[in-house]
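Backbone-to-sequence.
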């Protein structure tokens, strides 16, 4: 078990002093997006790690924090537990050292860290961090802000992994209400519905709601207005194994073809 998260250590006045030398993070992210769109994830990881070393070398802690947060997501994609958990420690240390814990940007990094803990099975350790992020977001964001939906989804996954199904369902439903109120976010709706299907299946494989939510997820993914781009492929890849495992093979096969076509075009 990792050290318990102590929210009192993440207070104070945030560090606002400019860094003497900086790294161009937006340009790095644009390059990453191009690599992800082509399914070149190993290259994306190498790129992030190389630029993170650069940020550390020049003393740009803000870039270091941003790139560490990006790497947390990449390590979840590649399922690199050793590097992922090391990056969690790095992210927590940076947020604490620069007193960013009560800012939205700092809380978002903490959310990414907690999600990574959950990805690698440390769900009990993730929940106090999720709760801290809930407080920061509640104090600073509109109740319908898109970022809250992401928080609720990831926190729900942690509860589900711990067998706390009622808490997980409530959080998934909160996320759905936010996503359905927004203009975009349709692929995220599909992922949330697939998570609900898995939650219902874990409790009762005969639950009629499983088919209902998976049909809704498919209708969302099959919307012809959705751009069939790299982001669609990434989100569809999260839904595909759920359709496959729960017996919706035609939908799973269709998604496989769509993902392959997107990567071949990129």
């Amino acid at each position: 078990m990792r050290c318990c998260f102590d929210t009192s250590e993440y207070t104070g006045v945030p560090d606002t002093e400019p860094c003497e030398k900086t790294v161009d993070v937006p340009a790095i992210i644009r390059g990453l997006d191009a690599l992800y769109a082509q399914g070149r994830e190993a290259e994306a990881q190498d790129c992030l790690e190389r630029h993170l070393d650069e940020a550390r070398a020049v003393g740009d802690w803000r870039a270091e924090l941003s790139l560490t947060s990006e790497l947390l997501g990449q390590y979840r994609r590649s399922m690199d537990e050793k590097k992922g958990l090391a990056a969690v420690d790095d992210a927590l240390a940076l947020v604490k050292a620069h007193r960013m814990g009560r800012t939205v940007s700092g809380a978002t990094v903490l959310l990414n860290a907690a999600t990574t803990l959950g990805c690698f099975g440390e769900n009990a350790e993730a929940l106090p961090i999720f709760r801290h992020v809930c407080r920061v977001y509640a104090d600073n964001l509109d109740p319908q802000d898109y970022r809250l939906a992401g928080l609720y989804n990831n926190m729900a996954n942690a509860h589900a992994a711990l067998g706390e199904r009622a808490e997980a369902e409530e959080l998934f439903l909160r996320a759905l209400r936010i996503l359905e109120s927004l203009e975009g976010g349709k692929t995220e709706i599909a992922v949330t519905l697939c998570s609900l299907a898995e939650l219902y299946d874990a409790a009762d494989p005969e639950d009629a709601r499983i088919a209902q939510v998976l049909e809704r997820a498919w209708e969302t993914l099959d919307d012809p207005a959705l751009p069939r781009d790299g982001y669609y492929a990434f989100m569809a890849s999260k839904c595909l194994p759920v359709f496959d495992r729960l017996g919706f093979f035609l939908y799973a096969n269709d998604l496989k073809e769509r993902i392959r076509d997107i990567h071949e075009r990129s």
